[in-house]
User: What shape does this take?
Amino acid sequence: MVFDTDKVIDILIINISGMSEVQSIGISGSITPLPRAGEGDIDIFIYCDMIPNYEKRQALLNQMGNQIQEGKINIFEGGHWGIGDFMLINGVETWLMYFTVTDTVTDVEAILNGEYPDKLDNYYYPIGRCAMLKNINVLFDQCDFLDDLKKRLSYYPDKLAKILIQYHLDELKDTEDLERAVVRKDVLFYHFAIDIAIDHFLQSLFAINRAYFPSRKRTLDFIKNFNIKPEGCTEKLLQVIKLGGFTEGIEQSFALWSNMVNELIKLYNI
Assistant: This one.
């Protein structure tokens, strides 16, 4: 029997919210419509006084019966993504990620204070957690935890912007690897170095525009809406990458890149 994904998610949210430990539930990304198989996954963030124990979470999966095709408990335990359980709903990977309210507030405050200016393990961006929470679709919020957090994140702190901009602009000034790759005309080495540099460029650009950097996904769409950016920013970024993909284009790529960085620095100093 095939069940409508939206209806299954509605039932799932009702069942999760029925656990006494759960305060708030939200889904990141678009929910209208929900993704179909092969289009993406569904990330459900669950905030609790305490994480429901294994038995309760297993009972939740069992409760869904044949409305899901697969379910697993404790796919990951702790770390940046909390306690994670998995469901397969009509071929769509659905992740249930449990966090405590206390840890979440502590993490967000540390991020906003500038304690994590750069990405961490396996390209996890702490600032991206703020981007997600600012835009999360709230499905259950009995004590207004998520609503209050979204209001807190609606203002981008000047202190945070200053810390991030300075950190990433300083990193951009270190061009040793890029210069070595250009001299050697080493395409793979240049690709490695320019990827790191682009990451710093993007994070400083987002901070200058007072936008939480979400990750490297859909970056160009965000940049199109920025008021402060180098002229022709998206087109030039793509050109830097394209030219850096073959030996004869590396020097031109680096020259274009250097001009973009210099323009960004000037825009910040205006």
